[in-house]
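Reviewer 2 asked us to include a model.

Predict the structure of this chain.
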Amino acid sequence: MTGRIRVLYVDDEPGLLQIARVFLERSSDLVVSVATSPEDALSGDDIRTMDVVVSDYQMPLMDGITFLKTVRQRYGSVPFILFTGRGREEVVIDAINHGVDFYVQKGGRPEVQFAELAHKIRQAVSRRETERRLRDSEQRLKDIIDFLPDPMFAIDRTGSVIAWNRAMTELTGVPASMILGKGDHEYAIPIHGTRQPLLVDLVNAPELTDTVRYERVDRHGSTITAVKELTLAGGRTIRALIKVGPLSNQQGEPVGAIELIRDISDTPRQEATLTRTREFLERIFLSIPIGIVVIDPSTHRIVDINPAAADMVGLPVERILGGRCDEFICQEVHGTCPIGGQDLTRENGHLYPRKGDGGVLPGRHHSRRLTLDGRDYILEIIDGIRGRERTNESMQENVTGSV
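Predicted model (structure tokens):
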């Protein structure tokens, strides 16, 4: 609670209003506005700007309970304190039934009764602020749960549904409004078509292990995962990865359990597609006429080389793999080798890589750095331009010699 608390005090005794204002505003955190009747207070919209309303009970045209009802209808949950000398029990009960925050009785020494009233004002505002923050927190949690891409629901210790997210609605066709608060394994019907224990029930009742049938059930601490074919209420069948765990309160005490469902029906198809893609890229790597060498800069070792590059070096792939790059090929980035530091041969203004034995590889050289699975590599590419240049020169000489 920050800033000053704005108080509206309504009473048909003007003198008491002034005394109350004097005593209450002795506290630097309270600022008091007054009205001599509920009708006057309701004539404008000032109540909307107030942090708390204090009202007498016995007033000529509208009593404090009727005023309370009107305030609740128009302004919702603004804190309301009944401050009156009328102490009949039925008044107190009626006030409580209509949502009054506190009932403070008039009488006695002013400094004592207004100190009590100031205390109740702060308490009411603090409590309402705590409730607001709790509502905001619950709404944020609900938004987060609804934002989750995987279907999820939660139950309390009695087995009643306390959360059912949007993805769960999309999976089952059952909206949250139709399932929240339901127990007796009602949540199993949209998933299995019948009432039966689910994996989530093992969190609250481990003795159900023999009655809940799943594939590959694994326990990691308080978390349980399993795989199961699910036939949903609409007849659709999916293969699901299911994960459950406990829900706890702020004291760490168990208050329920949560179940998350992930559709893995397409996983085998995705793995097959990935395998085909890898095989296709491997064929390109092996058959492309451009030389490709992959080097680990931390060890200076060649971790992969394609047949075209091995032919340029003049050795089998098996002989080159695992060897130091400066034994077989000198590489360059902007004129400086990033590993070995050797000079490169220059011909016709181009840079060419040099073999470890001193010969020049028949192709123009390019270097690229790349990161794969968190590791850095240097990719050396020999594009064969020099070989093509020599072939063109040879062809021109043959043509000239034949003329």
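The chain has 14 helices and 17 strands. The chain has three domains: 5-142, 148-265, 271-392. We have added this to the supplementary material.
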